[in-house]
Amino acid sequence: MNDAALNIAVIGAGPVGLALALQAARALPHSAVTLFDARPAEKDVSGDPRTLALSLGSVQLLQRLGAWRAEAAQPILEVHVSQQPPSMLPMLGEVFGEPDLRIRALDEAVPMLGAVLSYGGIVAPLQQAWMAAEEAEPRRLRSRFGAPVAALKNLEHGVEVDAGIAERFDLAVVAEGGVFADQARKAVTHDYAQTAWVGQATFANASQRAPGVAYERFTRHGPAALLPLKDGRAGLVWCVPSDDDPVRELNDEQRVAVLNSIFHRAVGRIESISPLKCFPLGLNAERTLTDGRTVRIGNAAQTLHPVAGQGLNLGLRDAFELVRALSRHADVDAVLRRLEWQRGPDRWAMIAATDFLARSFTWKLPGAGAARGLGIAALQALGPVKSALARQMMFGRR
After folding, report:
1. 57 in a structural domain
2. In tens digits, what is the pLDDT along the chain, a chain of 398 residues?
3. β-sheet bridge partners, residue 236
4. pTM
């Protein structure tokens, strides 16, 4: 273990920042950790209903940090991916069957592929665990809630963090990402000209539906997903073109009718939906994670299209690998140099995969949808390849 005493600033108290701060507090017992966030400490985040999907690796990380609340989470036992037949040829699906891919926890010999829970259900336990750690060691661990960081300045063997008062740290980790529409553009960026409509769906005969199944449907407009929730409802993510949005002008009854027409029949009948919110979608990524003694992780390093639901999981792996490297090596600059190539395969593989899928829905090439359908069918038929894909989604590229 590295016994060096570092002074670390963590900027952003979302899931990734809190997980990193908590892990650093445990893995680097001689180091000081200061957590910065613009929101006030008394603001209750536990009720934030945004739906997030965690991979099995992320669930295991939260369990190790003592911040996992199993009673609030719905395990994902199966992922079902399918493609809607072309609108001009709906009879093809009836005659030949629709291409689909089913990944099951049972087949991979794991208790779950991941889990679904609310943003508040992730952040509140992490913050509670961090506050307990801070209370136990107030001279080493500190929180600066209500203190937005205005500027970062690299120094020799350190970084200056300005949050009203300029302070010097050995390392600053930026985990404050935000959403694509509000971000300054990074080195690698692309506006997909797509909008994600998000909310929750309620089903008729909910008690008869298979529990723990996450559905992803590729449509001619874009991907749509239903993530299982604890109470039998599902989190909805519905991606459509921004310049020809087929959702915006519809009322809820019409939206339900459209959703029932596009999802696979295995989903069952959607009865109602909550009010939907919309977000522009794009890729926004840094070429490098490090700049001097400043490191960016999570959405601060890469904001992805939600087509694979892997953005948060990638950020949590960023945090875990950074702290693990710091705990093993005393030379911070060497750790940061290694971080680029250590995280590169996992990071760029996920960026490339989500970017390819997102762009494929904008292609006007004849046969693009058919090619995507053939790919889905091939993955289902090739067991070892499907298993390798499942392992990468659960644990990242190792």
Report:
1. no
2. 556 789 999 999 999 999 999 999 999 999 999 999 999 988 888 888 889 999 999 999 999 999 999 999 999 999 999 998 865 444 444 445 688 999 999 999 999 999 999 999 999 999 999 999 999 999 999 999 999 999 999 999 999 999 999 999 999 999 988 888 888 999 999 999 999 999 999 999 877 888 999 999 999 889 999 999 988 999 999 999 999 999 999 999 999 999 999 999 999 999 999 999 999 999 999 999 999 999 999 999 999 999 888 999 999 999 999 999 999 998 999 999 999 889 999 999 999 999 998 988 777 666 677 778 888 888 899 989 999 999 999 999 76
3. 199, 226
4. 0.92
Domain of 242? 70-117+187-281+363-395
Task: Write the CATH number for 242.
Answer: 3.30.9.10
Does residue 103 share a domain with residue 207? yes
Closest CA to 142 of 120, 158, 165: 165
Pairing of strands 234-241, 294-296: unpaired
Are 194 and 326 part of one and the same domain? no
As beta bridge partners, residue 279 has 196
For the record, the structure tokens of 153 come out as 């300045």
213 domain-assigned: yes
Q: Are residues 212 and 349 part of one domain?
A: no
Q: What is the C-alpha separation between 104 and 86, in angstroms, rounded?
A: 27
13 with 80, same domain: the answer is no
Bridge partners of 158, per DSSP, are 155
What are the C-alpha distances in Å from 254 to residues 31, 250, 259, 271, 272?
Answer: 56, 6, 9, 11, 10
User: Are 290 and 340 contacting, i.e. CB atoms less than 8 angstroms apart?
Assistant: yes
The residue behind tokens 């989190």 is 235
